[in-house]
Amino acid sequence: MHELYNFVSGPLAWIAWAIFILGSAYRLVSMYSLAKKKDGSSLAYMSWPYGLRSVMRWLIPFGTMGWKSDPLMTISTFAFHICFIAVAVFLSAHAVVWNTAFGINLWSIPTQIGDIISFVVIAACSVFALRRLLLPHVRSVTRPKDWLALGLVTMPFLTGVMAYHQMGPSLLMTTLHILSGEMLLALLPFTRLSHALFVLFTRAYMGSEFGGVRHAEDW
Amino acid sequence: MSHIADRIISDPGLEAGVANLTSEKIEEVVNRVLKGETGAKLKAYHETCMRCGLCSQACHFFLSNNNDPSYSPVSKATDTVYELMEKKGRGIYPYRIYQMAQVAFTECNLCKRCAHYCPVGIDTAYIISIMRRICYLLDVVPLYIRDTAHSHASTLNQMWVKDDEWTDSLQWQEDEARDEFPNLRIPLAKEGADVYYSVIAPEPKFRTQLIYQAAAIMEVAGIDYTMPAHPGWDNSDMCMFIGDFENMGRLKKAHFESAQNLRVKRIVMGECGHALRSVHDMGNRWLGFRDTPIPVVHAVEFYWELLTQGKIKIPKKFQEPVTIQDPCNISRGMGLMDKLREVTHMLCENVVEMTPNRERNYCCCAGGGIINCGPPFKSVRIQGNSVKADQLAATGVQNIVCPCHNCHGGLEDIISHYDLGMHAKFLGDFIYELMEKPEAQ
């Protein structure tokens, strides 16, 4: 068990981060170069003011037709993303990792708060799962890739909460937690989770077209 | 929930096209389009669509068909282009293309209302237009709109109007109008005018009174204008809607050059929606113009100028209450919702807005080429837009300001089917009826 833990928290972590960083860079660069080759007019219309305007509007809960149309989804989506990033980056336990591994010193959130918002994330993921199972218009377009994406983001939180609350063998849970985090990192650039890399661009593009060409609002 | 297979409509164009298909041909064309004509946009949309389903409530088809999931934008994209992408065009049997064609040509108006609902910013209309492109290159296109595109290709206009029929129609309306305005002329091919007035082909064909009205408005306002005497006069573009982009480019090139040859200062277009999209959004882009090589102004903006500059005076406004239809290509498509409202308020005393409105208004369900797919698909349009009927009925008025030919036809069909007792009118109708006519007899 200890060897596994050492491997997972040592070399495997470096591999996962490398795949994440290099993979993300590769996806961004290759997507951009594909756009230059094939979507020339779309690039030409990209606009900083209109793009940013759209990004900003869509960052406001209930600030758009889409967000207004499905309050449960809106609350779950905002709660999930905000809490996910808060825990993943700023949890005190993780701050220790950033410090020991990379020498970075970050502000951190108190562990108890981190615990509560981890449950918020799990609740949001449950909402996402239930929507996929129960709502016909979501179920009909759900494919295995969508379950994979949901699983990848849920597992670190489930295992993290279990490890923190000492459910199950402690070292095993922690190892699984690290492993599931590494899978999330490594697979993010290559799954639906790549929207983390691309959403700013797709949003800004829609904003640019609507604002600059169509002189209308895209929210 | 249903599937397109449950509601297949027989269409000779689709049937004939599919009869000539093989899986190999499909694979070749699909890959040629996906690799050759699409890029990061389509790839990003396919990958980052989180299948959240928020787009469903944007779409009048979804809402009007009892929230049937197969009508949601994400579903339409998934059952057409996404499926072809994932299978890399392989193993697609010909009849599947029939199904995809019926979805792409008749169950999406390309209205882009779903843009207001998708958090990621996915352009479903773009995705559907790629499906139409693939169908066009496979020659699987509904018969009526296919014929219209052939008309465009052969005559440079939408309605098989022959060269002399065009000028005959103009001179006929000029003759009629001179009964009312003795000095009225419709200048043909005059060089150096301020304005080149362009129309869509249905106007000389069966809405000639609109040409009369436009000539009357130009006369009263004292506009220095001309109309062309040769092909290139039609600003409409059904080729754009079937994925015949090469002819879309040809049409716009002919139109722009027709105006440039007459050395006019700008083109003013009649009240059409999709023509504006062809000019400012798609046709110009195909030709490599960021905007247009010569200024092009829509009738809504032109009337706004005439009214605010006092060139047209309205002694007494229209008294009965009216509501405003926001044609997708004019409001959501070109940002003219404010000017449309200002013009309407200058013409009408009592304006009741429908809800939602402006760029978030619902499509009429006739645009994007669907009404041009003809009678086989009329029921699809009407059943697919009961939300519009509800919207209209809720205003409680009888008159609709409707500055778009397709909306006009689409709304009249909805009004008649749902028995709403309402009537759609062009801005030109209102202005001609209400304007002060100094020289009129």
What can you tell me about this protein's structure?
The complex is a heterodimer of chains A (219) and B (441). With 219 residues, chain A is mainly alpha-helical. The mean pLDDT of chain A is 96. Chain A has helices at residues 2-9, 11-38, 40-45, 48-58, 65-69, 71-90, 92-102, 111-134, 136-139, 144-164, 170-187, 195-213. The radius of gyration of chain A is 19 Å and the shape is globular. Chain B folds into three domains: 4-141, Orthogonal Bundle (Fumarate Reductase Iron-sulfur Protein, Chain B, domain 2); 153-308, Rossmann fold, CATH 3.40.50; 322-434, no CATH class. In chain B, 50% of the residues lie in helices and 5% in strands. Chain B contains 20 helices and seven strands. Chain B has helices at residues 12-19, 23-37, 40-48, 60-64, 73-86, 94-106, 124-137, 143-155, 163-180, 202-206, 208-221, 239-242, 245-261, 274-286, 299-308, 337-347, 378-383, 386-395, 405-417, 427-434; strands spanning 195-198, 225-226, 266-269, 296-298, 322-324, 399-401, 423-425. In chain B, helix 13 crosses helix 14. At the A-B interface, helix 2, helix 3, helix 5, helix 9 and helix 12 of A face helix 3, helix 5 and helix 14 of B.
Quick structural summary:
The complex is a heterodimer of chains A (219) and B (441). With 219 residues, chain A is an all-alpha fold.
SSE topology sketch:
The complex is a heterodimer of chains A (219) and B (441).
Chain A (H helix, E strand, L loop, with lengths): L1 H8 L1 H28 L1 H6 L2 H11 L6 H5 L1 H20 L1 H11 L8 H24 L1 H4 L4 H21 L5 H18 L7 H19 L6
Chain B lengths: L11 H8 L3 H15 L2 H9 L11 H5 L8 H14 L7 H13 L17 H14 L5 H13 L7 H18 L14 E4 L3 H5 L1 H14 L3 E2 L12 H4 L2 H17 L4 E4 L4 H13 L9 E3 H10 L13 E3 L12 H11 L30 H6 L2 H10 L3 E3 L3 H13 L5 E3 L1 H8 L7
Spans of at least 5 consecutive residues with low confidence of chain A = none
- Helical amount of chain B: 40-55%
DSSP E strands of chain B, number: 7
> What order do the SSEs of chain B take from the amino end to the carboxyl end, as H and E?
HHHHHHHHHEHHEHHEHEHEHHHEHEH
Morphology call of chain B: globular
Q: Main sheet of chain B: which strands, in order across?
A: 2-1-3-4
Q: Give the proportion of residues in helices of chain A.
A: over 70%
What gross morphology of chain A would you assign? Answer: globular
Number of domains of chain B: 3
